[in-house]
Specification:
Elements: H1 3-28, E1 37-42, H2 51-67, E2 76-81, H3 89-106, E3 115-120, H4 125-131, E4 137-140, H5 152-158, E5 162-165, H6 171-178, E6 184-185, H7 190-199, H8 203-208, H9 211-221, H10 234-243, H11 248-266, H12 269-281, H13 288-300
Parallel strand pairs: 1-2, 1-4, 2-3, 4-5, 5-6
Length: 309
């Protein structure tokens, strides 16, 4: 709660955002404003990690701004990174969709004053060291019950990013440590996911029942983001409308509503700084020292040895 400490905290974060913006510009030619909210989603590209849910939200904001040019929203830079398995067709289509939406958004003067999208090429340990410290918001949005663990989300937390996420994997413990009020929670629980699938999940019902979602899917299908090509993203949209094994459409409304809470929180820099500081301060449980100590006690059955020098 110390104002001077909060200012210093924000200055450190801003310096890291400037460094990332310079890296992104050198790698992609895309200019990001470090004063904007940096919304970052970097990890292996996979349907269950739901990068495409993030894209549906970006398109939702794009549609809102196109319909209402006077709409005021906190400016946000969406940064993606990650690699897909060589033969994973839909994952590669997700990468293509991210870049296609980015090209449209970044070149549209109606929206690029408030939204930018960048895909960092060749995501690896070296550029991760630039990406993690620059994050304001960490996207940890896998379907509940699918993420066995997680370390990337912990790295974001250590670096003062706030998390938007489901009750999945390490998110559960992170939320317990940080405090529910310092974590942006959305989506179905593991039990709800199981119940919906058991009762017979019909993703098309969610699209029919939500006009914004229907419009987003239609704009992907009709070539808005693919220069009129209506076939390139058809497999991805058909998969969501007919099968949707990771319940993207079921979680869409909750995710969009949660992102509105993120935007509201970002507009109060003092409250945001407090949440950011507490995320870092309460991340001690995820130290490797603690993990190794538990291995020593519970698995290896070894005790410390005094070493004399």
């Amino acid at each position: 709660d110390d104002p001077s400490y909060q200012r210093e905290w924000r200055e450190v974060k801003r310096a890291n955002k400037i460094r990332l913006a310079q890296y992104v510009h050198a790698a992609t030619g895309i200019e990001l404003n470090p004063e904007w909210l940096f919304d970052i989603h970097v990890k292996r590209i996979h349907e269950y990690k739901r990068q495409h849910l993030n894209v549906l939200h970006i398109i939702t904001l794009y549609h809102r701004l196109k319909r209402n040019p006077g709409l005021v929203i906190p400016p946000r830079a969406f940064v993606f990174g990650g690699k897909a398995a060589p033969g994973y067709f839909l994952a590669k289509r997700i990468i293509k969709l991210i870049n296609a939406v980015g090209e449209t958004v970044n070149n549209d003067p109606d929206v690029n004053r408030l939204l930018k999208v960048a895909f960092v090429p060749n995501y690896n340990v070296q550029n991760a060291e630039i990406i993690y410290p620059a994050a304001d918001l960490s996207e940890q949005i896998s379907t509940a019950g699918k993420e066995a663990s997680g370390t990337g989300n912990m790295k974001f937390m250590l670096n003062g990013a706030l998390t938007i996420g489901t009750l999945d994997g390490a998110n559960v413990e992170m939320r317990e440590e940080a405090g529910a009020e310092n974590f942006f929670l959305f989506g179905l629980t593991v039990e709800e996911v199981e119940r919906i699938k058991r009762d017979g999940y019909r993703p098309s019902d969610y699209a029919i029942g939500n006009s914004e979602l229907a419009a987003v899917l239609e704009s992907i299908s009709d070539g808005t983001f693919s220069r009129g090509d209506t076939e390139v993203f058809r497999p991805l949209v058909d998969n969501l409308r007919v099968d949707d094994p990771f319940l993207v459409l079921a979680d869409y409304a909750s995710y969009v509503e949660c992102q509105e809470r993120v935007s509201a929180a970002w507009q109060d820099p003092v409250a945001w700084s407090r949440m950011s500081i507490l995320n870092t301060a309460r991340s001690g449980k995820f130290s490797s020292d603690r993990a190794i100590a538990e291995y020593c006690d519970d698995i290896w059955n070894v005790v410390p040895v005094t070493v004399t020098v």
